[in-house]
Amino acid sequence: MDLYFSPLAxxxxxxxxLYEAGQPANYLEVDPKTKQVRNDGSDFNKVNPLxxxxxxxxxxxxxxxxxxxxxxxxxxxxxxxxxGTASNAERSKLHQWLxxxxxxxxxxLFLPLLDKKAPPDAKTYALEKYxxxxxxxxDHLKGxxxxxxxxxxADAYLxxxxxxxxxxxxxxxxxxxALKAYYERLRTxxxxxxxxxxxxxxxxxxxxxxxxxx
Length: 214
Hints:
It contains 8 helices and 4 strands. The protein is globular, with a radius of gyration of 17 Å. Strand 1 (2-5), helix 1 (12-21) and strand 2 (26-29) form a beta-alpha-beta unit. Helix 1 (12-21) runs parallel beside helix 2, helix 1 runs antiparallel to helix 8 and helix 3 (88-114) packs parallel to helix 6 (153-162). The model has no long low-confidence stretch (mean pLDDT 96). The chain is α+β, with helices and mostly antiparallel strands.
């Protein structure tokens, strides 16, 4: 399968999931500015017209988009990895967390803060409206190791999103000790540590290239 990604973007969650499952993939880096696939110089927009990562091309040639859908696909494809759930009730809880992370945290809170073109008022509004979502996660994680009763693709997504606090100074994890401990614990998990280290190096190289071209 082919995973189209950009370094340290939300697509890193799928890399974590694939590493967790011990499954190989072709990792195709997309330049977030030019939408060019760095591996071969092709136009990523021809794969996904929206130009968004992650995008996954399965071994059957099916192109999947949207983080939650791709993560659920990986969990379903490799059940022995235990990244999904067995019962319908637990599966619904997994969907609940994937949707919550995608809408309330990823799009609602972090996207405006990370967008260099977003006006200050938009960033202020995002903090005022959505920072309480971190309170919600904090309360849920108290006394828990993972979002569900085991490491799942929802955790892969959450640790990827919380990793963005490195670039969002207004969000100081010390205010949420259970979430901070969760993040620090998962950062030492082999699949997460490997993904973060690899993508951080790619991110630094990407920044250097754009500075050189400016």
